[in-house]
């Protein structure tokens, strides 16, 4: 018997409605709509240049679409910037690692706690009691994450010395440290070997299962997408051409034509 999910898939938490994004004459996204449901793992797939990263950049406020709206928890994000979006419970990782290479694993993860810290620079520098207490609490939270991700043995290692797969895991840890409701993961498995991919999949599922975190991930590896996603949205030339459970999307003729490259019978 399949075990019931601790956090069943719920109502839409993120609603992308009719967004269009142009760079001069280039149409990166055209009239795109889809919903992401609370607690689901949602994959965004599509060929190179289909608009996946641009879409993620619109969702977390790096790009402002010329048309359409994006709503988080029912609230349309009007003036979105990465900071505002983060405060509203959304965090993202990047296709190319964005870690501080000379800093330890723990300190990199601590960066993700920034939003939860109120002490100013001076009170930290002077080691005022409130600042010390806050830092202690945040470090303890990061220690929990390090343990959860099974990377305690490298907690003090500078990130630049770690193999790529572990660096990606540290990035996931930093995103987790934000305690966001939604994590946007831009190619979390890019450049990984089979074993590292399997490990990352396990932790994505574990995060979703234990904390109910909604995940939106861009991924090229079809095996991974089909294995771990609840739903998949397929982009081609900046338009949605498929949206549904993996099995449905996999059987869709338009998707096969555009992306999977399977010949017609
Ligand atoms: N900053 C930019 N300036 C100009 N054009 C851009 C910019 N960012 C993306 N584009 C263009 O928008 C389109 C969509 O690009 P995007 O990177 O979003 O696709 P993608 O699906 O993420 O591709 P990939 O799988 O290769 O990462 C492409 O034609 C790309 O050249």
From TrEMBL:
Family annotation (PROSITE patterns): ABC_TRANSPORTER_2
Matching Pfam families: ABC_tran, BCA_ABC_TP_C
The entry's keywords: ATP-binding, Nucleotide-binding, Transport
InterPro entries: AAA+_ATPase (IPR003593), ABC_AA/LPS_Transport (IPR051120), ABC_transporter-like_ATP-bd (IPR003439), BCA_ABC_TP_C (IPR032823), P-loop_NTPase (IPR027417)
KW Iron-sulfur (keyword) present: no
UniProt GO MF annotations: ATP binding
The keyword Transport is assigned to this record: yes
Span of domain ABC transporter: 14-262
Highest taxon in the source lineage: Bacteria
Entries under SMART domains matching the protein: AAA
UniProt-listed PANTHER family: ABC TRANSPORTER ATP-BINDING PROTEIN, CONSERVED COMPONENT OF ABC TRANSPORTER FOR NATURAL AMINO ACIDS-RELATED
Protein name: ABC transporter ATP-binding protein
Organism: Jiella pelagia
